[in-house]
């Protein structure tokens, strides 16, 4: 038996949308403690590590561990039907293998959708020693990345104890976004040593755009030519963390 | 404007977007040639046949200039129209064959397709046919012998506005076509995919869609041929993409290449989740590059997420995507597909997008050259491309990322080995 209720349908919608940036079909691990998901994207370049403890829900009932495979864009289609101030109820019927999605508020409607074969394999997270840790406003990071996207498809991040710089070099144009420690966007930055690494904006902009809808504050961690970790702070003990492998640009 | 700037405008526009703000495209006009009127044309009437082929014009949308293409010659009508039969002929031959087609026209609002009118009903009747249909047409004035060229549409010869049309021959269509034309409960996109899976050619489906013969009642509007061609390429390849995503990744690098009518094609298929990138190089003095000093390079791509916006690279992007996806579906593999098209001055007149679709379908009939790495494959590719590698490579965003992007899995496995 598994059932959950969320008072704000938009919260669930935004979270699903954020996971959808990396994967179309996802396997959720559901347990009495809560829900989690960890997966690589099809190119094996990025990872999303997601968790919502039972406290994050307005109602949560789970009697046994179960894995549920879901087509996220189909689920999102249903969640998008919910209006402001409407709540969502999800329940899984193990016998039929179907997920029931109820939207309630102005009027009640219940959809049911098939679930998919669950992925067995669970990948460990990359364990990298990060030399830079930067705390940012998610909206500020989103804007800086939009700026870089205007001129190129990849961006170089450079950081020391004072600042974080985004450098993009395109075919014709270039862009430099400089964020100083303590500014509106960059709340804090600490660097064991100054570091730089280049990342694909295809990935970075999709991730940051979608995830910043769920969160106000993001912590970036990276090291020279190593993966970046983006931790989008979630309410009520939730977790939404991304890892993205670097690009090795020969310049 | 700097020298050659106007030429760059032309290659982006290709006679479609009116970027130079002239009412008609000066480049396409230049090629319009005046033909000798066929002796088989008697006055204002034409006794002949249609392959069938129908043109729905986009210029006056939401009004449409529409009508069947007709020929006074009744034998071998298909060879004028069927892209698989036109393929392999020289540019001059294609133009000569197409010039035998008379574009008959009448005007209709695109939404009028939901109602009945005599000329539209007859046009629809003959366009449903899979075989050539004998017709009798009457025109307002004696026919104007002018050849028309276009980047997406195949050329046609004379044109004249219809006053009357009679279908004298038999119309025959596969039962699958008839049943979907009659079915008003199935959406147009679903009908399109069903027809294709049944084995109906994409060109036949384009014709049905552009005449508003598929879908639920609100889908049944006239769709300009130019849009219908790209819509069908897109619907069909996206349908194939869903299935391809379930296949295993190709495990080596395959290269296909082909030159056809001044268009050189290179296709690289490399291991990875399904994604597609097209780079198009227009060399100086190719059809949309008169007076240009240097080549124009355009590109676009989509990742496994697919795309929702219309490609800035235009119809060719979709015309080449379809045969690539057809091939991946056939070999049951997913891959990163990179297509390079280089257009030389030998391609001096525009004959439509069918040439790209057919050239790639043809190239996939032959075995690929196989490589262990994409670097080797690219070396092989650049040996046949006139434009230097560095020039086009920097425009190939997905390809560059394919070469430089590290895999996260590499950093996960390191940990297992005791890394830090």
Structure description:
The complex is a heterodimer of chains A (251) and B (420). With 251 residues, chain A is α+β, with helices and mostly antiparallel strands. Chain A is built from 4 helices and 18 strands. Chain A has 2 domains: 2-114, Proliferating Cell Nuclear Antigen; 132-244, DNA Polymerase III, subunit A, domain 2 (DNA Polymerase III, Chain A, domain 2). A 9-stranded antiparallel sheet of chain A has the order 6-2-3-4-18-17-16-10-14. In chain A, strands 5-1-7-8-9 form a 5-stranded antiparallel sheet. In chain A, helix 1 (9-20) runs antiparallel to helix 2, helix 1 packs antiparallel against helix 4 (201-211) and helix 3 runs antiparallel to helix 4 (201-211). The model of chain A has no long low-confidence stretch (mean pLDDT 93). With 420 residues, chain B is α+β, with helices and mostly antiparallel strands. Chain B folds into 3 domains: 21-167, no CATH class; 175-243, no CATH class; 246-416, no CATH class. In chain B, 34% of the residues lie in helices and 20% in strands. Chain B has helices spanning 5-13, 26-31, 83-86, 91-98, 118-127, 175-182, 188-198, 202-210, 225-244, 315-331, 354-363, 374-382, 389-393, 397-404, 408-416, and strands at residues 45-50, 54-56, 63-70, 102-109, 133-139, 159-167, 253-260, 263-270, 275-282, 296-302, 336-343, 369-371. In chain B, helix 7 (188-198) crosses helix 9 (225-244), helix 9 (225-244) packs parallel to helix 10 and helix 10 runs parallel beside helix 11. Chain B starts with a helix and ends with a helix. The relative contact order of chain B is 0.13. The model of chain B is unreliable at 415-420 (pLDDT under 50).
């Amino acid at each position: 038996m598994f059932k959950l209720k969320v008072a704000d349908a938009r919260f669930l919608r935004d979270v699903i949308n954020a996971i959808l940036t990396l994967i179309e079909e996802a396997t959720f691990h559901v347990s009495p403690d809560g829900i989690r998901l960890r997966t690589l994207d099809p190119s094996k370049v990025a990872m999303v590590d997601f968790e919502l403890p039972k406290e994050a829900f307005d109602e949560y009932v789970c009697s046994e561990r179960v894995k549920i495979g879901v087509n996220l864009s189909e689920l999102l289609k249903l969640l998008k039907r919910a209006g402001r101030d409407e709540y969502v109820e999800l329940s899984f019927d193990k016998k039929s293998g179907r997920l029931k999605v109820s939207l309630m508020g102005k009027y009640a409607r219940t959809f049911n959708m098939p679930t998919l074969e669950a992925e067995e394999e669970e990948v460990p997270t990359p364990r990298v020693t990060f030399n830079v840790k930067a705390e940012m406003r998610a909206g500020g990071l989103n804007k800086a990345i939009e700026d870089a996207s205007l001129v190129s498809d990849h961006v170089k991040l450079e950081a020391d104890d004072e600042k974080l710089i985004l450098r993009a070099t395109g075919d014709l144009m270039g862009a430099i976004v400089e964020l100083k420690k303590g500014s509106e966007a960059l709340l804090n930055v600490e660097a064991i040593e100054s570091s730089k690494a280049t990342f694909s904006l295809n990935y970075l902009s999709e991730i940051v755009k979608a995830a910043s809808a769920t969160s106000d504050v993001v912590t970036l961690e990276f090291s020279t030519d190593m993966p970046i970790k983006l931790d989008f702070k979630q309410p009520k003990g939730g977790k939404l963390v991304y890892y993205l492998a670097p690009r090795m640009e020969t310049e | 404007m700097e020298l050659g700037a106007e030429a760059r405008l032309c290659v982006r526009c290709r006679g479609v977007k009116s970027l130079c703000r002239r009412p008609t495209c000066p480049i396409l006009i230049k090629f319009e040639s005046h033909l000798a009127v066929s002796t088989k044309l008697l006055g204002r009437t034409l006794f002949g046949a249609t392959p069938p082929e129908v043109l729905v014009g986009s210029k006056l949308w939401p009004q449409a200039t529409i009508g069947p293409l007709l020929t006074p010659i009744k034998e071998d009508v298909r060879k004028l129209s069927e892209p698989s039969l036109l393929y392999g002929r020289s540019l001059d031959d294609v133009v000569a064959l197409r010039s035998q087609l008379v574009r008959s026209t009448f005007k209709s609002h695109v939404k009028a397709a939901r109602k009945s009118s005599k000329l539209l009903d007859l046009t629809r009747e003959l366009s449903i046919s899979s075989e050539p249909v004998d017709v009798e047409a009457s025109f307002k004035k004696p026919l104007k012998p002018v050849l028309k060229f276009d980047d997406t549409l195949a050329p046609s010869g004379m044109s004249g506005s219809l006053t009357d049309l009679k279908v004298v021959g038999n119309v025959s269509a596969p039962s699958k076509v008839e049943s979907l034309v009659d079915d008003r409960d199935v959406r147009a996109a679903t009908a399109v995919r069903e027809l294709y899976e049944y084995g109906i050619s994409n060109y036949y489906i384009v014709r049905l869609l552009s005449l508003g013969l598929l879908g639920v009642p609100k889908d049944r509007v006239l769709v300009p041929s130019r849009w219908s061609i790209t819509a069908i390429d897109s619907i069909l390849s996206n349908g194939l993409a869903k299935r391809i995503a379930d296949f295993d990744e190709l495990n080596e690098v395959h290269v296909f290449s082909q030159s056809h009518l001044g268009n050189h094609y290179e296709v690289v298929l490399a291991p990875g989740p399904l994604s597609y990138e097209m780079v198009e190089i227009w060399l100086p003095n190719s059809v949309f590059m008169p007076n240009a000093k240097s080549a124009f390079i355009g590109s676009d791509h989509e990742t496994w997420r697919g795309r929702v916006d219309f490609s800035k690279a235009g119809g060719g992007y979709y015309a080449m995507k379809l045969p690539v996806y057809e091939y991946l579906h056939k070999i049951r593999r997913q891959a990163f597909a990179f297509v390079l098209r280089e257009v030389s001055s030998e391609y001096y007149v525009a004959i439509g997008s069918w040439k790209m679709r057919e050239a790639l379908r043809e190239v996939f009939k032959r075995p690929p050259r196989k490589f262990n790495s994409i670097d080797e494959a690219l070396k092989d590719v650049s040996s046949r491309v006139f434009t230097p590698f560095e020039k086009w490579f920097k425009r190939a965003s997905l390809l560059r990322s394919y070469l430089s992007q590290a895999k996260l899995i590499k950093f996960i496995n390191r940990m297992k080995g005791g890394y830090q």
